[in-house]
Amino acid sequence: MILILFGPPGAGKGTQADLLKDKFNLLHLSTGDILREEVSNNTNLGQQAKKFMDSGELVTDELIIGMIKNKIDSTTNVEGFLFDGFPRTISQAEALDSMLLSNNLNVDKVISLEVDDDILTERLLSRGRSDDNEETIKNRLNVYKNQTLPIKDYYLKNNKLVEVKGDGSVEDVNATIVSSIS
Question: H or E stretch including 138?
Fold first, then answer.
């Protein structure tokens, strides 16, 4: 099983990922974690990524996909994979689909957590991070809407998207997700 958790900052992707990975024996794939691991292990891909990072540039989609492929290829004893916060662009979604297809895999479901901006802002402010204020949160939500939200249509057209109202209790949201993928 391959799942993608999708939604704006503060929608509860990380919380739901923790529950789903245990329930379905999935490997939780966070691109940030994978990137740090590759750099720390000084792999070939990690060395290439470090050059981009050291110069303040974004790591290319090709490198990220290569790292994800390595992680998938080297992982055993799981029932599948859970992507959290990736892909972020249509080109990443297409590259992910292509890489998975080359491994005879495909995305089963994309769970889109739907939460109103007011609730997202309240959740993000309550985390108490020093860099979170209403202005930065508004900017993060705008970046999400402009750059990442178009992926929703991509997966909708491919009959992979499931929308889940994400403003209920953690347990209720999780129950809805589980029933949508079972």
Answer: helix 134-143
